[in-house]
Design brief:
The chain is α/β, with parallel strands linked by helices. Helices cover 25% and strands 23% of the residues. It contains 6 helices and 16 strands. Strands 2-1-3-7-11-14 form a 6-stranded mixed β-sheet, with helices on both faces. α5 packs across α6.
């Protein structure tokens, strides 16, 4: 039986833009897709992945609306995942409810260009509210980014960056995101330790760090040396061994401990129903496999990584 899980995965390294480039965001969503297919049995057609130029502002919102909210193939009560790996930031808020006058944002590929803006947390919250009304509350949100602080961290001979850029000193004009943003300004909402505005939809949020901290990129010290987000890397590494009864609280405690042991200024957060089973306990038991991609004499090339424990 196919897994009743649907996922929208967005990963942006910002190649070819004026935005500070990252290295591990596309790797994050590729690894997440691979995990969902190979270890959870999720059909490829139930996963939509947007990377780099595909992840423009209008496309992210349009895909969220059409692939998740309006998708008639998704039954009510199905497990839904939205994963964003990229830069987080802030922008001036048009809501008077913000004490510091700013909204937290995720940064699309084409943001900071003419008449293109970050996606504020209020817009994302409005989208999640509508999704919950249409499909139920079994929603997981992973934000491997941050919106406060700055800096880099040296690891070996590489400089691994944080996933944050300077705030945008503009305000979202009236008329943009009106269907989503306006619906959130009068709702009873609060900010959790992550700093992202929570939604009434009861979704579970896994955030890369607290509001004043950094979400960092991570390169494993051995084995697969590919760069990932620290949150995504340790989350997927741990999920490979989870049982069907594992809760989001279990996930958070394990991953936060491992991330914070290396990056002392990063403490991943879990907000929402911590007692909910991860992805509703849905899992297809199967051993991860490594695909042989080339054989040249005594040299064999295999395609593998953190999903296989490498």
């Amino acid at each position: 039986m196919a897994s009743q899980l649907w996922a929208l995965l967005v990963g942006i390294n910002y190649e070819g833009t004026a935005i500070r480039q990252l290295s591990g965001c596309v790797n994050d969503v590729k690894a997440m897709k691979r995990f969902l297919i190979e270890q959870m049995g999720v059909p490829d057609k139930q996963i939509k992945m947007l990377t780099e130029k595909e992840a423009k502002r209008a496309t992210i919102i349009k895909t969220f609306k059409e692939f998740l909210i309006e998708n008639q193939d998704i039954p009510k009560g199905a497990q839904i995942l939205f994963h964003f790996s990229g830069h987080g930031s802030q922008m001036l808020s048009r809501s008077k409810s913000e004490p510091d006058g700013r909204d937290e944002t995720i940064v699309p590929y084409d943001s900071r260009t003419s008449n293109v803006y970050d996606i504020p947390d209020k817009t994302l919250a409005g989208l999640l509210d509508k999704l919950a009304k249409q499909k139920g509350n079994n929603i997981t949100v992973v934000l491997d980014c941050c919106h406060s602080g700055s800096g880099t961290r040296a690891l070996d001979d590489a400089i691994l960056q944080t996933r944050r850029i300077d705030p945008s000193l503009v305000r979202l004009p009236d008329g943009i995101d009106e269907e989503w943003y306006a619906a959130t300004t009068n709702s009873n909402r609060s900010l959790g330790p992550s700093g992202w505005e929570s939604s009434n939809s009861q979704h579970v949020l896994i955030a890369g760090c607290r509001a004043h901290e950094e979400s960092r990129e991570h390169r494993p010290p051995s084995g697969d040396r590919t760069i990932y987000g620290a949150l995504t890397y340790f989350m997927l590494d741990w999920l490979r061994t989870k049982s069907a009864s594992t809760t989001y609280g279990d996930l958070h405690e394990a991953v936060a401990t491992r991330v914070n042991a290396i990056y002392r200024d990063q403490m991943p957060q879990c907000e929402g129903d911590r007692n909910r089973q991860v992805f509703g306990g849905a899992r297809v038991a199967r051993d991860p496999f490594a695909k042989v991609t080339a054989v040249n004499g005594n040299e064999v090339t295999i395609d593998c990584g953190i999903v296989q424990g490498m």
